Amino acid sequence: MSVEFEQVKTSEAYRLLHPKIASILISTNRTGAVNGMIAAWVTPLSRNPPLVGASIAPSRYTYEFLKDSGEFTINVMSRDYLREVHFIGTVSGRERDKLRECGLTLRPSRRVKVPHVYEALAVLECSVYKEVEAGDHQFVMGKILDAYVKPGIFGEVYNSRRAKMLMHLGGSSYTTIIDDVLSP
Fold first, then answer.
1. Would you kindly state where each structural domain of the chain is located, as residue ranges?
2. Which residues of 97-130 are buried (b: 16+ CB within 10 A; e: fewer)?
3. Which tens digit of pLDDT belongs to each residue from 112-164?
4. DSSP one-letter string for the chain
């Protein structure tokens, strides 16, 4: 029995690749000011060297900070911080200090000048490795300089019963991973 497909607008086709981890990408500018954005378009690129990529619209205030400092942190958040994550994703840092207002705790990072979110499940500290124009976004590749995770939620993979990573479906919709780990 064959099943027909329904048409999806090509401008929305990227959502067929969701859910994606809703992480907070933070950077600083030359004066030391801090800003962050929600980054769901993040992907591993290489193990050696350890590289990660993030698609960022050049109009984003955080992108300006990233260009200034050449460093950023990626903060993987749990479903417990849905309101804070959504707030950061819907308020502009040009007008307000959204990281301070949302109530999350910023802490100094180990290898970069950019802070990380203390409440995060996991943190990747990165320096900009390369940047590529990608349509209406810039694809920023970061070299992972340090990575750490809260105890008990990661071995070789996340413990899906404990991690409960916040996943972005698109727009204002989020989900989390299921409890079961499936293996063939």
1. 16-176
2. ebbeebebebeebeebebbbbebbbbbbbbebbe
3. 999 999 999 999 999 999 999 999 999 999 999 999 999 999 988 888 888 89
4. ---PPPP--GGGGGGGG--EE-EEEEEE-TT--EEEEEE--EEEEETTTTEEEEEE-TTSHHHHHHHHHSEEEEEE-BGGGHHHHHHHHHS-TTTS-HHHHTTPPEE--SSSSS-EETT-SEEEEEEEEEEEEETTEEEEEEEEEEEEE-TTSBSSSB-HHHH-BEEEEETTEEEE--SPPP--
Peptide bond preceding 19 in cis form (omega within 30 of 0): yes
Buried-state track 32-53, b at ≥16 Cβ within 10 A, e below 16: eebbbbbbbbbeebeeeebbbb
Residue 127 bridge partners (DSSP):
71, 143
Give the domain 16-176 fold.
Answer: Pnp Oxidase; Chain A (2.30.110)
Model pTM above 0.90: yes
- pLDDT tens for each residue of 2-35: 789 999 999 999 989 989 999 999 999 999 999 9
